[in-house]
């Protein structure tokens, strides 16, 4: 009972906030009220409640605490309180017994085992004592002593045999080490050490113990050497033996630390060895070996740079693959663990390997990064540079796959990949800008020597038929049918195969993009049976320079696939190629005509933008590329060639067709560009590309301006007798002469436009300009008439109606453009002097001479009182 009370009291903790369970006995003179007696859960030491003495009678003790004047109600309240205490204490006692039940059962079992051992010892002593009765005689005692002596000799013989076996153990250990059976060797060595410790009292065994320790150290060194070979030549059975060996030695954690050091050393040695094979120098190899890794990179010739990079990436990816195999082996080992100490070692190893994976990935990237930044790639060919970027991207993909995200480091891969992506971005940007400058210089040379003749292309020509677009076109087709154009990086369990699958990816990268596209020729031919370029003239008009722009854009678009970080810069440069061709056509064929025509807002905005970008490029340190000029062999000013009509057709239509090809590329460009840069692409197409139509109109203006002799018509109109007194029914002769010119001009246009697929559009543009110029010629000729009667005004209207009706039939333009310009002018002759001033304010398109001619006619017809007013208006016009 005392033990139980002690257990109960030990499970109860005192609290400073509790007021106590039992009140101090009240004095006989004072009796506590019934309301003051409230039951509370006991929280004080229960020994005080039961009594400090084991012989205390609790009921008697409680009765003694009652006051002398206790009432019946008070006794009942105290009784209820004690019942409450009894229930709670019983619960606590039961809980305490249940909590200590396992300890009680364990202690009880130990007592039982002790009783059994004592009983067995007692029986053994009894049996030995009873058997001693057989050896009471001297002869029996001597026999017993001799038997004891025999047993000692046999024990000595066994000891000597064991020592003899230990002498030959060294040979067996050497055999096991030669066969790389390290667990058996360690097991044998540890057993020998244990035996030698048991026989340490023999002098001959002392040297053997020291020798066994040296052998064990030698085995550990050989295991460490074999562990270092795992870093670049992983074999699961070998690694499993090594781990079993370290487990026998009790150095699992030490082995992991040592393995991480070996991987770091292996990365350096592998990279150094690979570069040493490709380093070219006049000095001996021994001299190169004394140099640092960065210095050796300087000896790599550009002609062998790509094979060297591939070899380096292949060898370093093999190290990463071996590391991942090691990590997977330990990760899969968790299910075989049973002992807590083994689980602790496993957790330590996994954490170390997880962190070491990121460190090895950093070391590997640093080697590739040093090699990349050490090379001068400005003089590399386009295909060669794409190979370098392709190989590096494959290496990054392999590294991210093998050194993937760990649960506790979700952003490690992104952060580590930047170590290679940043130099790739810098190299790509540096190379592309130099390459773009070469392309711009090449385009400048093409445009300077451009003959403005059409290159023969197929009738259904598409930019995707060009060889430069074929790899990109095939990649899109492959993506549409669900075949990835990116290297197939093994994932999941495939990375854990016995053979490393990643070096094959780098072997594929050695093929050129041209060879790769040829390998996919069957897929391309199956899905696109469009014929290649053929020497026919029915196709779209494209100059050699325009085709060169498309070829360069095809290369740029292929770059966007490989050089994804600088895709925006590449597409911006594509737009600059188009801008340069656009501004060249405008500069050579349309600039001189701009002052004769009012430029639209779109055209003015485009010109201002291109001019601003060219000046900004110079301010940012770029070189200003001069605009090309037309060859002196090409005449675009002679009337006999209609101001170089043929060359103008080629220039204008090639610009429009180039814009159409760029429109077909828009979905591809939008796919490459991010949404943040979509506004730039929209502006480029809305302004520059769409403005090609307006540039085409300007290019054809000189043809219309020089195709007809408008000056001759202006000179012939004043020669007609306009002071007739009768209304004429026959138009003047100059109208027929002018229409004959138009018909001759039409025949020349049709002969030069034969075979042109856009001949109707071109004719419409030229006739629109001719209509405007003809109307201007009529107004100018009518303004030169000095004297004209009302019947003469009717003849003017007759002449114009005759001309314009035939012109509309000839040009197929109805109504003719700018027709109101003549009609309003002829109607103005009939205005009064009061209405003329208001008419003049509404029609500001007429020149001072033309208005003065109108006023002169009005003065002649005006009354004397109105002539002064008309002369004042005429003076105001002359002053302006």
Would you give an account of this structure?
Helix content is 69%, strand content 0%. With 880 residues, the chain is an all-alpha fold. Helix 7 runs parallel beside helix 9, helix 13 packs antiparallel against helix 18 and helix 30 (790-811) runs antiparallel to helix 31. The model is unreliable at 1-30, 406-416, 477-486, 491-495, 512-537 and 862-867 (pLDDT under 50).
Overall geometry:
elongated
Oligomer: single chain
% residues in beta strands: under 5%
Kindly state the number of beta strands.
Answer: 0
User: Could you name the ranges where pLDDT drops below 50 across 5 or more consecutive residues?
Assistant: 1-30, 406-416, 477-486, 491-495, 512-537, 862-867
Major sheet details: none
Instruction: Please identify the structural class as seen in this structure.
Output: mainly alpha
What is the overall number of helices?
34
Give the CA-CA distance, first to last residue. Answer: 133 Å
Helix content: 55-70%
Mean pLDDT: 77
The rounded Rg comes to: 54 Å
């Amino acid at each position: 009972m005392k033990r139980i009370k002690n257990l109960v009291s030990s499970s109860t903790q005192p609290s400073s906030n509790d007021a106590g369970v039992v009140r101090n006995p009240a004095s006989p003179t004072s009796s506590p009220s019934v309301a003051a007696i409230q039951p509370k859960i006991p929280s004080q030491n229960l020994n005080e409640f039961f009594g400090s003495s084991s012989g205390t009678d609790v009921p008697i003790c409680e009765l003694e605490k009652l006051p002398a004047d206790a009432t019946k109600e008070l006794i009942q309240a105290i009784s209820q309180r004690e019942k409450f205490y009894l229930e709670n204490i019983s619960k606590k006692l039961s809980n305490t017994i249940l909590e200590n039940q396992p300890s009680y059962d364990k202690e009880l079992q130990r007592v039982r085992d002790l009783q059994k051992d004592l009983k067995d010892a007692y029986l053994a002593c009894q049996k030995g004592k009873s058997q001693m009765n057989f050896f009471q005689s001297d002869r029996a005692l001597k026999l017993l002593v001799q038997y004891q002596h025999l047993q000692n000799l046999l024990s000595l013989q066994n000891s000597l045999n064991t020592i003899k076996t230990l002498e030959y153990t060294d040979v067996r250990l050497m055999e096991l080490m030669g066969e790389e059976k390290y667990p058996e060797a360690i097991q044998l060595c540890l057993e020998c050490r244990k035996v030698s410790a048991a026989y340490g009292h023999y002098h001959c065994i002392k040297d053997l113990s020291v020798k066994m320790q040296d052998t064990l150290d030698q085995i550990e060194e050989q295991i460490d050497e074999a562990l270092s070979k795992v870093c670049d030549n992983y074999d699961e059975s070998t690694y499993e033996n090594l781990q079993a060996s370290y487990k026998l030695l009790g150095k699992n954690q030490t082995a992991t630390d040592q393995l991480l050091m070996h991987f770091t050393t292996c990365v350096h040695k592998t990279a150094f060895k690979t570069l040493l094979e490709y380093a070219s120098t006049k000095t001996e190899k021994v001299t190169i070996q004394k140099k640092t890794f960065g210095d050796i990179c300087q000896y790599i010739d550009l002609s062998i740079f790509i094979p060297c990079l591939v070899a380096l990436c292949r060898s370093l990816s093999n190290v990463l693959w071996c590391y991942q195999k090691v990590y997977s082996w330990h990760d899969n080992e968790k299910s075989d663990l049973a002992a807590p100490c083994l689980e602790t070692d496993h957790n330590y190893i996994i954490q170390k390997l997880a962190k070491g994976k990121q460190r090895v990935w950093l070391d590997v990237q640093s080697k590739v990064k040093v090699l990349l930044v050490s090379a001068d790639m400005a003089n590399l060919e386009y295909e060669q540079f794409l190979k370098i970027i392709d190989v590096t991207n494959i290496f990054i993909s392999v590294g991210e796959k093998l050194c993937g995200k760990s649960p506790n480091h979700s952003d490690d891969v992104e952060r580590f990949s930047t170590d290679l992506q940043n130099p790739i971005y810098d190299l790509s940007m540096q190379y592309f800008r130099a390459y773009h400058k070469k392309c711009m210089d090449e385009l400048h040379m093409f445009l300077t020597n451009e003959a403005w003749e059409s290159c023969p292309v197929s009738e259904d020509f598409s930019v995707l038929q060009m060889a430069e677009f074929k790899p990109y076109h095939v990649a899109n087709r492959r993506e549409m049918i669900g075949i990835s154009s990116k290297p197939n990086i093994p994932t999941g369990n495939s990375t854990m195969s016995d053979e490393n699958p990643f070096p094959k990816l780098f072997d594929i990268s050695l093929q050129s993009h041209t060879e790769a596209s040829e390998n996919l020729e069957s897929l391309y031919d199956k899905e696109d049976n469009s014929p290649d370029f053929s020497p026919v003239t029915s196709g779209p008009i494209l100059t050699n320079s325009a085709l060169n722009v498309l070829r360069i854009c095809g290369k740029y678009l292929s770059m966007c696939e490989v050089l994804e970080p600088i895709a925006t810069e590449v597409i911006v440069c594509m737009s600059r190629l188009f801008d340069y061709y656009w501004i060249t056509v405008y500069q050579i064929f349309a600039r001189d005509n701009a002052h004769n025509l009012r430029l639209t807002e779109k055209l003015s905005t485009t010109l201002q933008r291109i001019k601003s970008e060219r000046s900004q490029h110079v301010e940012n340190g770029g070189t200003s590329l001069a605009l090309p000029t037309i060859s002196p062999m090409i005449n675009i000013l002679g009337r006999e060639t209609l101001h170089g009509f043929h060359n103008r057709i080629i220039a204008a239509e090639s610009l429009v067709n180039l814009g159409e090809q760029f429109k077909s590329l828009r979905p591809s460009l939008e796919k490459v560009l991010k949404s943040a840069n979509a506004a730039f692409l929209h502006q480029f197409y809305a302004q520059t590309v769409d403005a090609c139509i307006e540039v085409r109109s300007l290019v054809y203006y000189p043809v219309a301006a020089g195709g007809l002799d408008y000056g001759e018509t202006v000179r012939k109109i004043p020669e007609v007798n306009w002071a007739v007194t009768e209304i004429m029914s026959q138009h003047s002769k100059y109208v027929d002469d002018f229409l004959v010119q138009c018909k001759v001009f039409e025949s020349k246009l049709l002969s030069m436009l034969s075979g042109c697929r856009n001949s109707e559009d071109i004719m419409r543009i030229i006739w629109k300009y001719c209509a405007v110029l003809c109307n201007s010629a009529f107004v100018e000729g009518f303004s030169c008439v000095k004297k004209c009667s009302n019947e003469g005004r009717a003849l003017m209207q007759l002449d114009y109606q005759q001309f314009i009706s035939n012109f509309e039939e000839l040009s197929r333009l109805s109504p003719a453009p700018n027709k109101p310009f003549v009609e309003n002018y002829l109607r103005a002759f009939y205005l009064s002097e009061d209405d003329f001033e208001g008419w003049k304010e509404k029609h500001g398109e007429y020149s001072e001479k033309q208005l003065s001619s109108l006023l002169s006619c009005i003065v002649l017809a005006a009354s004397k009182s109105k002539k002064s007013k008309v002369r004042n208006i005429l003076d105001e016009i002359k002053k302006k």
